[in-house]
Amino acid sequence: MNILSAIIWDASPDIFSFEIPFIGSTLTIRWYGLLFASGFLVGQYIMLKIFKAEGKPEKDIDAMTLYMIVSTLVGARLGHCLFYQPDFYLANPIEILKVWEGGLASHGATIGILFGLYLYSRSRPDQSYLWVLDRIVIVVALGGAFIRLGNLFNSEIVGLPTDLPWGFVFVKLGEDFARHPAQLYEAISCVFLFLFLLWMWSRTKEKTPEGRLFGLFVVILFSLRIFYEFLKENQVDFENGLPLNMGQILSIPMVFIGLWILIRSTKNKVENKPLPN
């Protein structure tokens, strides 16, 4: 294959490093961490606009963001450890805490977020569980784009070899052939999903049937995940002997759950209550 027709990707995962005074250690700021944090900051801003538009207490945004950060990190880390490398991490549980060494799973993050927001909504009778999920998936979709861009800077979760002109040669992996930029495919899809969900919400706002946006998000996101996995390298060796990889296996029940919630949302009617001044 002629790599001159491909995109040479040699971006550093690090933005800059600096020495910490009086300690003698070096702190490195990485693109992945910056993009991960940016996803939460931008999401918090959008949620603030949504809460304001629907007359919900804006002070609750800080609490929701905290629940989201903790549940995302814990869920994503445990998901990676238990779904992809359970033998190693169960034998070495202290390694689970080493988040800085990499290893976060989106399916685990999904489970963590669902649990964290359930705890959040329990103490807020004006924000039902499905109401919260319908709004949060708008920013989660955008956050997914930030995270996949972080994966691209890390040259991880790479695609299969390709001779397409937009293939990426990941120099950091020591390769001289092009691969599908699977991270970029997913990032772009997440941006379009974010815009679609935001448009759907803007049409009905507080009158949105509960479960409608969440059901759409789950069905679309995990259907795309099943498709994109066919273009990606397996993350761990045991997946090579499976008809579908772990990402696809975990996505299938999510699609059915999303369809069930989406169908139920057609029966949910929202009372036409005036917004508070």
UniProtKB/TrEMBL annotation:
A 1,2-diacyl-sn-glycero-3-phospho-(1'-sn-glycerol) binds at R148. Pathway: Protein modification; lipoprotein biosynthesis (diacylglyceryl transfer). The chain crosses the membrane at residues 31-51, 63-85, 97-120, 132-153, 182-201, 213-231, 243-263. GO terms for cellular component: plasma membrane. GO terms for molecular function: phosphatidylglycerol-prolipoprotein diacylglyceryl transferase activity. The keyword Disulfide bond does not apply. The lineage of its organism: Bacteria, Pseudomonadati, Bacteroidota, Cytophagia, Cytophagales. PANTHER family: PHOSPHATIDYLGLYCEROL--PROLIPOPROTEIN DIACYLGLYCERYL TRANSFERASE (PTHR30589:SF0), PROLIPOPROTEIN DIACYLGLYCERYL TRANSFERASE (PTHR30589). It comes from the Bacteria. Coiled coil: none annotated. This is Phosphatidylglycerol--prolipoprotein diacylglyceryl transferase. It is found in: Cell membrane. HAMAP family: Lgt. The keyword Endoplasmic reticulum does not apply. Its EC number is 2.5.1.145. Belongs to the Lgt family. Keywords: Cell membrane, Lipoprotein, Membrane, Transferase, Transmembrane, Transmembrane helix. It is a multi-pass membrane protein.
